User: Fold these one by one.
Assistant:
Number 1:
Amino acid sequence: MLAEGRLLNLGCATGHPSFVMSASFTNQTIAQIDLWLNAQGKQTVAGIKYESGVVYTLPKILDEKVARLHLEKLGVHLTTLTKAQADYIGVAIEGPYKADHYRY
Amino acid sequence: MEYKIKDINLAVEGRKELDLAETEMPGLMALRKEYAGKKPLAGARIMGSLHMTVQTAILIETLVDLGADVRWVSCNIFSTQDNAAAAVVVGKKGTVENPQGVPVFAWKGESLEEYWENTARALVWPDGKTADLIVDDGGDATMLVTCGAEFEDAGSVPEFNPATDSEEWGVFLATCKKIFEKDPKQWTRARETLRGVSEETTTGVHRLYQMAQAGRLKFPAINVNDSVTKSKFDNLYGCRHSLIDGINRATDVMMAGKIAVVCGYGDVGKGCAQSLRGQGARVIITEIDPICALQAAMEGYEVKTLDEVVSMADIFVTTTGNTGIISAAQISTTNGFSPTATASSCSPKAAC
């Protein structure tokens, strides 16, 4: 039994690599900024007024922002929708591109 | 400055790893640049309970860069990288003799008693005030504040029942009891002044939704796990990298040609199965969810019950976040050398 049955990748190695954790922790940092802006009664990044007792997910446009921040490092060249294409599928050129129920 | 780590002299090698990690964490570095000089977290006391690794060190230093006053613990007794913890304590401007970083209370190989003591300690600042915000992984810090306050509401900490309760639950109750005897309102105040929690894992958000439904969540919470750029990347590609890294470092056993059983085919299971297949292992999946089972089958994996395959498999990996997946009796029927591993975004823990 490795790592006494606890997390093997963190107990016997060094966990996930930096690049993928950057995506996770960029979300964490945005979440912390938002909760603190909310606590001070300021406008939040997500535009949500966070209420006590409720569990929220960050809006898709911020999810897309996190992904965008990781594209250059991998040499990704993203295609931009034309106005006609954006209108055809009913999204804004700058996103968000998928409905909340889309599962990826 | 207070801290409790393995060895502060590890800070020099730790800083080298942090420097390297910064070049691989473009999202966090972009936020540092975007918010440079703006300090959006100024005045925020942030307590983190999340694996004290090199990557987490970059998160901590980003929060500090944005103005936060941070204290940190690991959310697992074995997950701390002691050099990363030392580098965070020393900080960018400090030295081993004069550390100026962030108070960390974590080391690799804590006892359960030490683990819960560290968690409680990190939640309370030297002036007696508690965290405004929590970065949680698996929900332990949130559970300590919430259950601690609920015990205070009830006027006592429940007795441990060794017949029905887990060992860890007993340690948790003992920790609560010790604090209750010293200050019977500590967690009540902490719960009142907590402004929010952001949660990293599948297990932790499951707990948060249960607490919200039961009316026990007394602050807002953000489910970071279900950001697509978290669970569809960290849980999947993170495990695809780190599962076989862990098996290799722990055993150096060759996976090619072996039969590997992966229990669970969620995001974590999918990553684990793919990495084992990439090593040339013959991978078999167990599942309770027909949708995930069908996904596994159509990806070309055999899907069986554990009992059908336990006697012939070489490697077992559990990825479910659940309890009682493989029993000692089942393992005793395996042939020879069978490394058994848990890979998940959080290990199952006691819950209140």
Note: The two ends of chain B are 33 Å apart (CA to CA).
Number 2:
Amino acid sequence: MSRSESSVTLSIVFGNWATVAGVAILVAFLVLTALATWPPAYHLVARYSPDTLNFGSANASPSLAHLFGTDREGRDIFARVVAALPIDIAIPFEVVGASVGIGLLLGTFAGYYGGWIEELVLRVADLFFAFPSIVLALTIAAILGASAEGLRVFYSEMALIIVGWPFYTRLARAQVLMIKQMPFVRAAEASGLGKLRIIRTHVIPHLASVMVVYATLDMGTVLLLYSVFAFFGLGASPPTPELGRMVYDGLSALPGNWWWSFFPGLTLMMLALGFALAGEGLRDVFDPRLRGQR
Amino acid sequence: MSRAISTDDVMSAEALSVTYKVRTGFLGSVHREVKPVDGVSLSVKKGEVMTVIGESGSGKSTLGFALLRLVKPSAGRVVFSGQDIGELKGSELRRLRRKMQIVFQDPYSSLDPRLHVKDIVSEPLYGSGMKDRADIEERTARAMALVGLDPSAKSRYVHEFSGGQRQRIGIARAIVGDPQFVVLDEPTSNLDVSIQAQILNLLLDLQSKSGASYLFITHNMAVAQYVSDRVAVMYAGEMVERGASKDVIGDPMHPYTKDLLSCVPTMDISKKVADVKISGDPPSFTDLPKGCRYSNRCKYAFGLCREKAPALASAGGREVACFLYHKEEKSTPAPVR
């Protein structure tokens, strides 16, 4: 990227408070997660271990000693929220990453080659579209994960990928159909480039921006979907902390010990908001209409 | 049109047609075929600039694409420097492509905004299977110099350039592989008038230096007259008149060519251009008039014109597809098409 273009890009990113907020939220969470996962730094973030039981201070409401309060077993909820972050942040990246990868591959080939490849890919994608994704994913995860507690997280991710890829496949195909008609692709054909090389040098780079925007927007959704899984007990086995599960565990204590559910829920909301705002910002960066304004 | 293909033809087409299937009607139940290029034959000699003139929708760009096999012809054959390119396998055709190139109309969308200029310009070299990086870089630099681009442009992106500069990049891409045949698909119609002349002169200069053959596609009579040795006039997918530039433009014979030329405004204010010189609209490809395709708009049309399609035949030192000039056909059946 040339200097002028990157400065334009930066001005679009930072000229919009919502994008700045989204990026700031994500960066804050990532830093927090990195610190919490690195043992020597853990105590800079949280004073207590997420798994230490301390019945003496059970059911404490939020205070300076326990920012988010403590649960029924006296575990510090802030420590548990921090400990849950690595899983809850990694899962959207893994699920969306795999969905985008599959969608990009299938969608690009379907769109560029057309014919029976396209028909086959689209009809299979339609099959998955026919069911409400959350119901389908929960069913798949419940069936797969019923017998294998240790693999439950993995199966839940699989279920989310299974319902996630059709969207990216359709998105990629639609974009490819458009890009294929661009004169620069025709020029590449006139130059004698092979199909694979045209896909690599001309099609994928133009797809990438759109895919990244939708992937970022989707991260928050997947995060919330996974929390629903955890809520229904389809996540990691206890005592591994998970935000969705913590919300569920606190429900029985509402409205009295509201902090059991409230803070994990708030954290989920902030994360989802961060992804959504950052995604919107990326869309502005990649929007060709905004790029033209110079 | 059974003229033998002579050895000094760089590019020739025989009875070339391009057919598109369109679906209309309820749920696409009606299948129809349209032929934007319908049985066109032409040949471009070595070192010649031939211009195809026509209104938008006359099939002139499609003809250019079909000659380069960027669209697949439905009938006919295309012979490029002695080879029937319809018989070539994909990889053989790709290897040949740098010798038959194209400059596109739109200098914006025809250049990938995500590539460096040098990667755009060198594309035909990579496409033809060249591997030697140093050689590719040298040829790319030479092509850029020939079109008047600064060497520093090579690592920049196209959005940093003006329309005229971009078209130079497009031209550099076309000439980088030393092509024998170049299709110029309205290369100046998206440019400012002052830039148009520069680009046209650049093209003519490159053409005379390289001795390549150019097929110039345009709707602009002034441009056609300026650049071409020979002119072919297209109407509704067919050629209606073809001959030396000075004959066809200086003294048009086909009623369509006449009407088309009379629509060109002149700088002479004493000659007012009539408001409507050609009545009616160009025919739709799905609903062509019977007989001559121009018969519904032609002021000279008579009975036969609405019955039979005239073939391109020589008259007045050129070829014209009009019964006004081969009257003997009035009594004999029109050639089977």
Note: The two ends of chain B are 10 Å apart (CA to CA).
Number 3:
Amino acid sequence: MALIGSGVLQGLGVTLRTFIETYPWGKALLGVLRIRTGQGLVTIEYPDVRQQHHERQRIFPFLVYDGAPDNLRCVSCKICEQECPPQCIHINGPAKDEQGRPAKVHGRTYPVTFDINVAICMSCRICVDVCPFDAIEMDNEFELSTEERFGRLVFNKARLLKSNEYFQQIKPTEAAEVDARLAAKAKPSPKPAAPAPAAGPTAAPAA
Amino acid sequence: MQSTSDTQLLEISLGPQHPSTHGVFRMNAVLDGETIVKLKPVMGYLHRNHEQIGEHTSYIGSFPFTDRLDYFCAMSNNLGLALAIEKLGNIPVAERGEYLRIIMVELTRVLNHTAVTGFLLNDMGAFGTPLLYAFREREKILDLFEAASGSRMMCNYIRPGGVRIDVPEGWLQQARALVAGYPQFLDEFERLLTKNEIIRQRTQQVGILPKALAVNASITGPLLRATGVNYDVRKVDGYSIYPRFSYKVPLGSVGDVYDRYYVRILEMRESLKILQQALRDIPAGPAVSPKGQAMVKAPRTFRPPKGEVYSRIEAPKGELGFFLTSDGTPQPYRYHIRAPSFINLTVLEDMCLGYKVADAIIILGSIDIVLGEVDR
């Protein structure tokens, strides 16, 4: 039978060591005494110090455009709207011209409005998985709080649009995969810049 | 006219906003002095209609909602639903995916048991220190989850046929380093807690759950194994690739709060053994089978044949079961979850009777409930 209280004292030894090793001098002292140290201080002083987040971190979706903001990849097929589990995406489109036919920019149909409610979105990434055009991707911007309850919490098309360069910057690995996939897809049509020949494959999903 | 020497029973309501009830849970206790003579659990404050939502979305669409069942163990919940869907739709699983799933689920078990031990000590009155030590280690596992899945807690990672995407480069090395270093933390944690006389006084012979009652009330998980019943769904069903690993099922003998604490510590050590074997044997190759990949890309194309299926896993809290009924459409006709926290809560009164109020708090803490799962 061990001495009563020895268990408590051993535990206190652990807390004392953990306390000392959070200081630089403490770590040196423990090194001199040949006591195995842990990792010391593990917290950081946000927002002065910022943590490097993992590349795959997903917070909120954004719409990708190539070059100019009107050249967005979204063709308003509404698959993401249908598959979104909490139903936070609302798309109005595709845009129509005066005759009621689908209007096209850069050979693609486009949404008139594209709203995502940040208060409802649960960052599940299903919209990215189901998008056949790689038009929607996950952002890792997490400071999304706002003082306005209405208006600012619904991200409209203008706020959602971000360039492909931004995507390449925040998620290099994933962006490289997407770019390779899109390049492979674009090969069959010889002139992707001209609006008329590219109409074939992209006009179909505008349901 | 009552004389002043007469005593009265006092009814108190603990919760639902009480910090010791682990969320929005309420206990209506009737006290005779300090002793509990009756205790009624009240739940449902966190009901989010999960099962009904699951019947109105595609099979894949339910995955992010399962993350929010037991928000400490998102990966286990994902695996439970994925196994049920695989059984329903006969989806083959990629070999690497199987291993990645086991790694994720066992990391989840380590994470959950670490955190719950910290919470139990918090309930006991050891504010902060053990909990923060536990959370310091838990954070490392959450970092791994974030690197693999993109989210710390709401992982949404495991899919029918494997996992959503293979782990990034260098992840397995990081996981190996973590698994290699974890026993050191457990040793330190045990030095802090296991032999501590105050903890022994508080937990031994408190909240004893009789073996027969545990079996009759269909209690599962560490709560059941602490009473000495050898029942682990991993061993009984041998689902996924668990039969390939060698590990033991730790058992308690008395069934008190201390046994539950210690069974969890031992389970973590066994989980680390599984992790070592899985990280050693993991093969290269695709992380998800083609059928699973197609399902991720286009969830509505998955139309399982008519029928119903019940699939269960050993989640960190107990037997987590998913019951799915398919009517041939892309949405389940019926979707039900057997939540271990909820079933384990049914014996709370039997364990608390005759003990003091402070004991009721640690008994509740030792059951290890998460209200997201209890109320669904």
Note: The CA atoms of residues 267 and 301 of chain B lie 40 Å apart.
Number 4:
Amino acid sequence: MFAPVYLDHNATTPIDPTVLSAMLPYLSGQFGNPSSRHEYGRAARRAVDEARSQVAAAVGAHASEVIFTAGGTEANNLFIKGAAAAYKPGVLAVSAIEHPCVLKPAEQLARQGWTLHKLPVDGDGRLLDDPYRAVLALKPKIVSVMLANNETGVVQDLAVLAAPAAQVGALVHTDAVQAFGKLPVDFRRLNAAGVRAMTVSAHKIGGPKGVAVLILDKRVELQPLLAGGGHERGLRSGTENVAAIVGFGVASQLAVSRQVAYAQRLLALRLTLEDGLRSLGAVLFSRAAERLPNTVYFAWPQIDGETLVGHLDRAGYAVASGAACSSSQPEPSHVLQAIGVAPELARGAIRVSLGEGNTAADVTGLLNALYATIDQLRHLPAMGQPSLATMH
Amino acid sequence: MAYSIKVLDHYENPRNVGSFSKEEPGVATGMVGAPACGDVMKLQIKVGRNGVIEDAKFKTYGCGSAIASSSLVTEWVKGKTIDQALDIKNTQIAEELALPPVKIHCSILAEDAIKAAIADYKKKHGEQAVTG
Amino acid sequence: MLKLPIYLDYSATTPIDPRVAEKMMPFLFEKFGNPASRSHAFGWESETAVEEAREEVARLVNADAKEIVWTSGATESNNLALKGAAQFYAGKGKHIVTVKTEHKAVLDTCRELERQGFEVSYLEVGENGLLDLDVFQAALRPDTILVSVMLVNNEIGVIQPIAEIGGICRDKGIIFHVDAAQATGKVAIDLASLKVDLMSFSAHKTYGPKGIGALYVRRKPRVRLNAQMHGGGHERGFRSGTLATHQIVGMGEAFRLARLEMDAENERIRRLRDRLLHGISDIEQVYVNGDLERRVPHNLNVSFAYVEGESLLMAIKDLAVSSGSACTSASLEPSYVLRALGREDELAHSSIRFTLGRFTTEEEVDYAIKLLHEKIGRLRDLSPLWEMVQDGIDLRTVQWAAH
């Protein structure tokens, strides 16, 4: 069977076999509802508690700070809207390059009387200091800046950013979904610097889809998004997704134990890939910034990204054009717009995100496929045409 | 709900279950709790002429911890004078049975049952009987 | 050989049917793509699976796949339906009608809507647990915008008259939401004929996985909702968030099996339930809670008078059943559903919910009957209330030293 090479690990990752085997009992005989008081229920409760401790330990938090949700989107919505509900509308600041599941809730608040500031970034995607300080002077009540960007992989120095925000009384949140597993992530350290909440998700680290956590400093009052039953200390009602939670627990442990070696190995692959891309004349985004070890974001002038991605798919390489989102939006990525990339070039953006299974041969193979394709595409007037990918 | 081994033991093998006839000499009854609260304890003591509790029996409508608490106090009050029995405190019951915080009220109820039974005894027999 | 404890708590959650688990497996392994990935085969393969599952969910309830929105479970579906509709139609009015015996996911959501400025009427039910249509009619006001009534009650299994309620709501232009978490696979649901606008579903009550549910949102006439989860704009903007493909595939297969097998399965389960009821009916002072006729076949909720519920659960620990409703609190509260039926406290305190299911056997039911006889007898020997009743004392005349 033809198995394409998967190079889209920032979109989702395969479940690690160790994780899957830990989950399997909870998809068969161990099926109890953790709220039930009989042995089936108690066994499920113990499994959830253990996973809670595992996730907590993996991110440097206490088990009581872990709130399980159905995914990163829900965790981010829960923090942004839940924290805002405790206040009268005021100033809210999020970086301009946040994932839509932070940006959209923030925009929703803006429609409810909040003043939203989208914090600008420099040409490499790093938060700009002066505009940030200027917004802090307005005493924002909520600040959310992602630890690592899903498209560019750019890492922000949250410990440095959080301190002045906390000083003006802001509740600081960071979306660490892309950072966790690829970088050391320590909530205790971030918390000491003023970060009050953090989101991490299972399916980006070899865990299952359908579960994520909001790590929440217990001093923060939060209004739940989902009412009914009072699960998760009343902050998130709904029967626990036991199998997925168990999987997340194991995946988080694996992620931490592997992180250093994993990052080193992927960085070596990334550097090889970047050398190759430069020699093929690609423009690499956020080159000068500190980035995730697995993420490369690039484009060729005058080559349409969706068309190139379609060619690569047929050649057996699964990569992303822009961010993996549900909408087939034709406009270029908001992240590249924030960086100041010209729309023509941004439309060509391709993201390669490496992961567990990738090898040096995959990188060489991709470069060869690109070499063969680009030359061909340069001679095609591809731009502005509907692409294969958006037509699915 | 995880119960301690001692609670389970008293629940599985409750001591001194039953009733004395109220007409029997020296018998006094304490009934505490209410069905609406989910616990009703009936503790009966049989006091000898020397003021020593010779026998005790109970019946309890309630959770395992309530049953265990009342079973335990029937053992504890036997052989005690009524004054000594009045010294039994709910904290001792809770400690002996390793009751979790949500079940402390069961031990309080058991202490109240002792007090109620002794009050009934005093009412029937007058203060003199106490020192006997 | 019986495996103990015997699971008789299918309304709390069901095991995943092995056929469902098998269908899920590839999506936990090699077919791991994000269904939102538009640029490669991994994504397309997942998206196709998601859409096939959507068809299956729609088919069970005779709806269009385009009317099915994935959620993380019935709690989220109920929250999305009630908050989404109330907020969208707030301009038309502020009044919401629901029932006191609804699931907490509906009741707690209504409480929150009250804090947001809506007015909610919580209707009484009859002692059979059913909503009286006259009571319902009388509760409607010109500014009523939303009604929420569950199809099958989770504790007592009674089936509410949603066809009639839907007709009344449609005539008055009121949005009608139905929590059907406990209903799928147990009662036939035909959304082409029912005048229901929004309906919540759960997978894990119907032999699918936990962590996945769906909300039916009617297209003709079109029902609008304010989204509650914002982000990538998944699910046509109704509900953002990466779709958990394996769970969705599991729900689709679970609902497909329900559609194919429910008639035969319900007959089998009804016979077992009736066997259980008949087997315990010679125990004195046993009361069935809720209407026995207008009820799903797998539910039997009974009160054993003068026996306290928690000690009863302890005594029958070889049976995995629930007392009151499965909630997150450590202490046992008398069920609010039974209290709404007007049950006295000592009966509400002593109720046990038996819910039978796909894997329940006759042998298990017989074991349960035997155990109940034995343990009820033992606990009544321990019960001062039972003794008083045997002595002819009317408990209502007793002055309790209330604590």
Note: DSSP finds 13 helices and twelve strands in chain A.
